[in-house]
């Protein structure tokens, strides 16, 4: 049976480690997805985007990352589908951590954002 909680995690990121520590401190067992090693497919990214309730997929992207700039993803003509495809092709663009639970999701920057899902 899959976990009720899914954490999209990068162990090299302090915010991501803090999110995992928060879950562990609460006794919450989450399915931890190391998204750089096992990237979510486009359908999964679309689902996360919907659960986050964002107007723009840019809000779930690392817009300050050099890769974002190199790929020209700041172009206002790019729609959410194009941005989500870019994340699917380059998972390092995905903001982290992201916690998914009970049909909702939150980006853990700051970690307090995750409280609403716990």
Automatic annotation (TrEMBL):
Gene3D superfamilies assigned: Glutaredoxin
UniProt keyword list: Oxidoreductase
Catalytic activity annotation: [glutaredoxin]-dithiol + arsenate + glutathione + H(+) = glutathionyl-S-S-[glutaredoxin] + arsenite + H2O
Enzyme class: oxidoreductase
CDD domains for the chain: ArsC_ArsC
EC number: 1.20.4.1
Highest taxon of source: Bacteria
UniProt-recorded Gene Ontology molecular function terms: arsenate reductase (glutaredoxin) activity
Family: Belongs to the ArsC family.
NCBIfam families: arsC
PANTHER family assigned to the protein according to its UniProt record, in alphabetical order: ARSENATE REDUCTASE
Name of the protein described by the UniProt record: Arsenate reductase
Gene: yfgD
């Amino acid at each position: 049976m899959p976990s009720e909680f899914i954490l999209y995690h990068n162990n090299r990121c302090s915010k991501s480690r803090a999110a995992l520590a928060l879950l562990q401190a609460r006794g919450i067992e989450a399915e931890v997805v190391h998204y750089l090693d096992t990237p979510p497919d486009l359908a999964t990214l679309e689902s996360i985007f919907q659960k986050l309730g964002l107007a723009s997929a840019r809000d779930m992207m690392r817009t300050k990352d050099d890769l974002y700039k190199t790929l020209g993803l700041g172009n206002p003509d790019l729609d959410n589908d194009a941005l989500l495809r870019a994340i699917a092709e380059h998972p390092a663009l995905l903001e982290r951590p992201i916690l998914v639970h009970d049909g909702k999701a939150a980006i853990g920057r700051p970690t307090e954002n995750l409280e609403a899902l716990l």
